[in-house]
Design a protein that fits this description.
Strand order of the largest sheet: 1-2
Strand content: under 5%
Structural class: mainly alpha
Helix content: over 70%
């Protein structure tokens, strides 16, 4: 009889534990990537394909939530630039753009004059399309995470690492084209002229690993900065809203906690809109800075 009572109580406790709200699981479910999209409790399963085996490596090309919203960000970039280009084609030479086209033109001119030309110098205009594409692509990825049911693909380290890798390749190729093979090699293997051969050898031995690591830390910093800022903001907002569920059994406390949590979460959401623009701008600006630094390494 005693065993039955104990077992029944344990089962009841387990049932309560299973039904209790798990804030950590909720946060991880919202932040991590998934093979489905959850919009207002309505789940949309994405198609899953069999991995392609290439030797010992299995490549899975099945779309995930981050992939879908990353593609959507790319589509928004195309719509933005094609719409503005179409507007300018229809304008006469003396006409001034208005509305959305005027805003985009102001951004383009700002990036061309204050970011690209200011940091890269001669021959900078050729890099303006690349820097603008980085800015708008990252901006749309950031902002899509604020849409109900949306996701910030830039809150995934694999996405930011891929963007940083693209920026790294553009930076290094730009330096190679501007400096030539010999000049580019000096950005890694460098010793001040006029030193004794022994001194040059010592400097090369010490500085070569430092210069090589310096090239790798730049894309690493780009990837981690964007990933950390977008992930931290999302976790903070969800954690504040999750507090209302933790106090669901205490109605009086829940009302106060819910009001405070929603107010703070709304303020942080507005701040995150600003951070979305800021982080996109910082990534694009630092890429332009790195291109300028290697092109003028002398």
């Amino acid at each position: 009889m005693t065993d039955t009572i104990v077992d029944g109580g344990g089962a009841a406790q387990e049932g309560v534990a299973e039904e209790s709200f798990d804030l950590g699981a909720m946060l991880m479910g919202k932040v991590s990537d998934s093979p489905y999209i959850d919009i207002g409790g309505f789940r949309i399963d994405l198609p899953q394909w069999d991995p392609i085996q290439v030797g010992a490596i299995a490549l899975d090309f099945s779309p995930t939530k981050n992939v879908v919203f990353m593609i959507l960000a790319g589509v928004l970039c195309l719509v933005t630039f094609l719409t503005v280009a179409r507007t300018f084609r229809r304008m006469h030479a003396d006409d001034a753009p208005t509305g959305f086209a005027n805003m985009v033109e102001a951004l383009v001119l700002f990036f061309r004059d204050q970011v690209v030309r200011a940091n890269i110098g001669r021959g900078a205009d050729g890099y303006t399309p690349f820097i603008l594409t980085l800015f708008f692509f990252i901006l749309y990825m950031n902002l899509l995470g604020l849409v109900p049911g949306g996701a910030s693909a830039s809150a995934s380290l694999s996405v930011t690492a891929a963007l940083a890798l693209v920026a790294f390749v553009v930076v290094e190729v730009s330096g190679f084209r501007a400096l030539g093979p010999r000049g580019y090699a000096r950005t890694i293997f460098y010793a001040p002229p006029g030193l004794h051969p022994v001194g040059s050898a010592i400097i090369l031995l010490i500085m070569t690993p430092v210069e090589a690591l310096g090239k790798l830390t730049k894309p690493f910093a780009l990837a981690i900065r964007l990933f950390a800022n977008m992930t931290a903001g999302k976790i903070l907002i969800l954690a504040l809203l999750g507090l209302t569920f933790l106090f669901a059994d205490m109605v009086a406390i829940q009302i106060g906690v819910a009001g405070a949590a929603i107010g703070v979460a709304a303020a942080i959401t507005l701040l995150k809109v600003f951070i979305s623009f800021l982080q996109a701008f910082i990534f694009a600006m630092l890429t332009a800075v790195f291109i300028g630094l290697i092109r003028h390494a002398h």
